[in-house]
Specification:
Blueprint: H1 12-23, E1 30-34, H2 44-59, E2 63-69, H3 79-91, E3 100-102, H4 107-119, E4 123-126, H5 130-136, H6 154-165, E5 175-178, E6 193-197, E7 211-213, H7 215-225, E8 230-234, H8 241-251, E9 257-261, E10 264-266, H9 273-281, H10 296-302, H11 306-316, E11 323-325, H12 327-341, E12 344-345, E13 347-348, E14 351-356, E15 365-370, E16 380-385, E17 388-392, E18 412-415, E19 420-428, E20 435-443, E21 460-461, E22 463-465, E23 470-477, E24 503-511, E25 523-526, E26 530-534, E27 544-550, H13 555-565
Parallel strand pairs: 1-2, 2-3, 8-9, 10-11, 12-25, 14-20, 18-21, 23-27
Antiparallel strand pairs: 4-5, 5-6, 6-7, 13-24, 14-17, 15-16, 17-22, 18-19, 19-20, 23-24, 25-26, 26-27
Helix pairs in contact: 2-11, 7-8, 11-12, 12-13
The protein binds adenosine-5'-triphosphate and magnesium ion (MG).
Adenosine-5'-triphosphate binds at residues 35-37, 45-46, 48-49, 233-234, 263-264, 271-273.
Length: 566
């Protein structure tokens, strides 16, 4: 990626950084960080933050981006999440090099800084119960009131704080609070809690600590220790900035600047870990990596490419106001990427036998098929053609409507790269009346699907040779929620808004033999059906499983058109 490329679009954050570089603030350094809490899997919203923070670091000459695990809450965090987060960031195409940090590595320094604040009379040990603390805090319209423990002496505070750390007290007996202003209009400034007692082991520090720092305390100090220059976070932290600045000012330490941007909201899905955890735990999806999930592991398994996610994050841009992005834009981005790169193949989702009566029984022809009309360098492949084929059941109508250009009795249709064929007979199941086979004849002069005499055929359909095709399972996906804005739905009605048809599994699909060579996770276009990927978890040689990443139809173009009109 180009460094210091001023031709890149300048959003408000890059504009601030450009100015800081121009004025020599931070001596030309640009250090950002991506600070996930390892309490769940990353989702597409995190991708926005990752692309922003790592993107900026890549663009500037003296740029760096730290991967920092914000692991200060031992009850919800696990190593499993740490590993998955690293895998996801790497998959997106970003490299943190040696800059891997853990807030838990700063526990000692956080403790020392807290002692410094106590010594300076800027922090105190409070012994009110959690409920009392809440009561004393006041409301948005009413000021809070001081705790009776607020005027403890420095000596007493230091003693109690040391004993909190030593494990002398039970959970909830005391907390350490910053001493700011219980009447402050910003609720975050009303003596916020800095430490609480939690007698639970931590996934990295084990039993060493039984007091743990709160987010606001750990976050500003971590940024300061790492000499972050621009601490980019989402808008819900706007009111925390005053506290961020206050704490660092009191300590007189290196002071990065916090800048907020709007978080990503995506239609037809939820991007809150709390709700994603619910989907997993209540069994609405098969796991964090269910291809319907907006997690990066789900999206990856669905067949989305990292390139398409990065493009998406670029297109949505940066704003200071929250908004919801239509999921169709995400689909548009992957469709565009795969259109350029995915090899075309033929796969029949709902097979119907088609027998060419005048085609020799034993003959097998190798038909040359174009791998990607968008990219001639991808070449061609040979696909076997024989007397008995499978075609798509949906491509036949016994009694066709107007403008039906596909298979119907007496109609001539092109088999892509094959021949022109005309249906001459329909075989039905005697009991059910269901069509079980079509009989047809071909015109041998149309080999390859070309018209010898300029004769026009309106419809072109895909096929596979029955004797050569591979069996496959195919999974088709729809939105996880029926409403565009499930994030707004109350917890109790959450379940009712799930789309009962978000997954359709087809068990008896047939695909062309070239797909035997496809590695798990590789992508292709099934002609006329969409873009698919080989499922990396369930697919086996001889028992292939494909996930449909996205259909070919471009709903986004429609939405855009409607938006322009309306
Ligand atoms: P959730 O609200 O889903 O639990 P979180 O914000 O608690 O997510 P963190 O692990 O704390 O998750 O997030 C790490 C970083 O990713 C933070 O800087 C956060 O602001 C950013 N982030 C999280 N969700 C989004 C989003 N939807 N859009 C943009 N950035 C996000
Ligand atoms: Mg968080």
């Amino acid at each position: 990626m180009a460094k210091d490329d001023s031709s890149l679009p300048r959003d408000f954050i890059r504009t601030i950084i450009d100015e800081d570089i121009a004025t020599g603030k931070y001596h030309g350094r640009v250090v950002t960080r991506f600070p996930p809490e390892p309490n769940g899997y990353l989702h597409i919203g995190h991708a926005k933050s990752i692309c922003l923070n790592f993107g900026i670091a890549n663009e500037y000459q003296r740029g760096d981006c730290h991967l920092r695990f914000d692991d200060t809450n031992p009850t919800k965090e696990e190593m499993e999440y740490v590993e998955s987060i690293k895998e996801d960031v790497r998959w997106l195409g970003f490299d943190w090099g040696d800059n891997e940090f853990y807030a838990s590595d700063y526990f000692d320094r956080l403790f020392e800084y807290a002692q410094q604040l106590i010594r300076d009379g800027k922090a105190y040990v409070d012994s009110l119960s959690a409920e009392e603390i809440r009561e004393y805090r006041g409301t948005l319209t009413e000021p809070g009131k001081n705790s009776p423990y607020r005027e403890r002496t420095v000596e007493e505070n230091l003693d109690l704080f040391t004993r909190m750390r030593a494990g002398e007290f039970e959970d909830g007996a005391h907390v350490l609070r910053a001493k700011i202003d219980m009447a402050h209009p910003n609720m975050n400034m009303r003596d916020p809690t800095m430490y609480r007692i939690r007698k639970v082991p931590h996934h990295r520090t084990g039993e060493r600590w039984c007091i743990y720092p709160m987010y606001d305390w750990a976050h500003c100090i971590s940024d300061s220790i790492e000499a972050i220059t621009h601490s980019l976070c989402t808008l819900e932290f706007e009111d925390n900035r005053a506290l961020y600045d206050w704490l660092l000012d009191q300590l007189g330490v290196y002071h990065p600047q916090q800048i907020e941007f709007a978080r990503l909201n995506l239609s037809h899905t939820v991007l809150s870990k709390r709700r994603l955890i619910r989907l997993v735990e209540e069994g609405h999806v098969s796991g964090w990596d269910d291809p319907r999930m907006p997690t990066l592991s789900g999206i990856r398994r669905r067949g989305y490419t990292p390139e398409s996610i990065r493009t998406f994050c670029e297109r949505i841009g940066l704003a200071r106001r929250d908004s919801t992005v239509d999921i169709a834009l995400l689909e548009y981005c992957v469709r565009e990427d795969l259109n350029a790169r995915a090899p075309r193949v033929m796969g029949v989702l709902n097979p119907l036998r088609l027998v060419i009566e005048n085609y020799p029984e034993e003959l097998v022809e190798q038909m040359e098929c174009i791998n990607n009309p968008e990219d001639p360098s991808m070449g061609t492949r040979m696909v076997p053609f024989s007397r008995v084929l499978y075609v798509e059941r949906d491509d036949f109508r016994e009694d066709p409507p107007k403008k039906w250009f596909r298979l119907a009795p007496g109609r001539e249709v092109r088999l892509r790269y094959g021949y022109f064929v005309t249906v001459t007979g329909v075989v039905k199941d005697e009991a059910t009346g269901e069509v079980v086979e079509l009989r047809c004849t071909n015109d041998p002069a149309t080999r390859g699907g070309d018209s010898p005499d300029g004769r026009k055929v309106r419809g072109t359909i895909h096929w596979v040779s029955a004797a050569h095709a591979l069996k496959a399972q195919v999974r088709l996906y729809d939105h996880l929620f029926t409403t565009a804005d499930p994030g707004e739905i109350h917890d109790e009605r959450f379940e009712a808004s799930l789309n009962p048809n978000s997954l359709t599994t087809l068990f008896s699909c047939r695909v062309e033999p070239s797909l035997a060579e496809y590695e798990p996770g590789s992508f292709c276009q099934f002609e006329r059906q969409g873009y698919f990927t080989v499922d990396p978890v369930d697919s086996r040689p001889g028992a292939l499983v494909f996930n449909r990443t996205v259909t070919l139809r471009d709903t986004w173009a429609k939405i855009e058109k409607a938006q322009k009109k309306g």
